[in-house]
């Protein structure tokens, strides 16, 4: 007998936004989500508190990294139909150029959604999506054995 699974349920933007509101750091950053079809864009509105180097000025690298991690979590959550919030196994971030004091955008692409682990890539940009300021590659735990996590 083969095991069949139900198709993933549809997660709406309100549910996803509520999940983000429950994360204190996401709330502090003010990250907003836009969903058009199955394409999710995270938007980080600029605030002075997000500057890491006031001499340039440039966004703090941790802010950019957090935006991309949150975007990855949201995209995986959508891809699996809102079953469970994924947990980070590891992430690698390439900072490609300084983030300027303007709004920043991020999109994620789930490259593999397995039974237990998801692989995802995220790019963050400001003026032109083809000219990213940072990129993330990560592995996330989406399902664990009983008691393992």
From TrEMBL:
<dbReference type="InterPro" id="IPR006683">
    <property type="entry name" value="Thioestr_dom"/>
</dbReference>
<dbReference type="GO" id="GO:0016289">
    <property type="term" value="F:acyl-CoA hydrolase activity"/>
</dbReference>
<keyword id="KW-0378">Hydrolase</keyword>
<dbReference type="Pfam" id="PF03061">
    <property type="entry name" value="4HBT"/>
</dbReference>
<feature type="domain" description="Thioesterase">
    <location>
        <begin position="59"/>
        <end position="130"/>
    </location>
</feature>
<dbReference type="InterPro" id="IPR029069">
    <property type="entry name" value="HotDog_dom_sf"/>
</dbReference>
<protein>
    <recommendedName>
        <fullName>Thioesterase domain-containing protein</fullName>
    </recommendedName>
</protein>
<dbReference type="InterPro" id="IPR003736">
    <property type="entry name" value="PAAI_dom"/>
</dbReference>
